[in-house]
Amino acid sequence: QVQLVESGGGLVQPGGSLRLSCVVSGFTLDYYVIGWFRQAPGKEREGVSCISSSDGSTYYADSVKGRFTISRDNAKNTVYLQMNSLKPEDTAVYYCAAQPSFSTTVQPMCIMTYSKEYWGQGTQVTVSS
């Protein structure tokens, strides 16, 4: 059974940090591009950051460059999103998604925000004082 399970969300003050985790099961992480996406109420889903399966190449949305860092540990079947200097506009439900690496690379993975092979259920991130 394929599962992607996000965790690490919560309430944080502006300027604070959170680390999201996406644990996958039921498939081998080595052969998938993984992305983090977010969706705030009333807004379109946005590709936040994506990471390749092989060479570690990454993509970041302009809105998070310099603040967020994506990483993966294939041995632990886990992808992380370290979020620093959080802003109220980062408030959203954050989802991880997986797409086979033969069918995509990091930039299109993030830009095309739908039609992924697998999705997680999401974790809420709220940035507020």
Task: Please provide a brief summary of the model.
This protein has one helix at 106-111; strands at residues 3-7, 10-12, 18-25, 32-39, 46-51, 58-60, 68-73, 78-83, 92-100, 118-119, 123-127. With 129 residues, the chain is mostly beta strands.
Keywords summarizing the entry:
4-stranded antiparallel sheet, 7-stranded mixed sheet, mainly beta, 129 residues, single chain, 11 strands
Number of strands: 11
Overall 3D form: globular
SS class: mainly beta
**What is the terminal-to-terminal distance?**
40 Å
Mean pLDDT: 95
- What composes the largest sheet? 7 strands, mixed
The ordered string of helix (H) and strand (E) elements is: EEEEEEEEEHEE
Question: What does the radius of gyration come to?
Answer: 13 Å
> Could you name the ranges where pLDDT drops below 50 across 5 or more consecutive residues?
none
Instruction: Estimate the helix proportion, in percent.
Output: under 10%
Percent of residues in beta strands? over 45%
Number of continuous helical runs: 1
Can you put this structure into words, describing what you see?
The structure is a single chain. The termini are far apart. With 129 residues, the protein is mainly β. The strands form two sheets. Strands 2, 4, 5, 6, 9, 10 and 11 form a seven-stranded mixed β-sheet that branches. The chain has one helix at residues 106-111, and strands spanning 3-7, 10-12, 18-25, 32-39, 46-51, 58-60, 68-73, 78-83, 92-100, 118-119, 123-127.
Topology (elements, then pairings):
Elements: E1 3-7, E2 10-12, E3 18-25, E4 32-39, E5 46-51, E6 58-60, E7 68-73, E8 78-83, E9 92-100, H1 106-111, E10 118-119, E11 123-127
Parallel strand pairs: 2-11
Antiparallel strand pairs: 1-3, 3-8, 4-5, 4-9, 5-6, 7-8, 9-10, 9-11
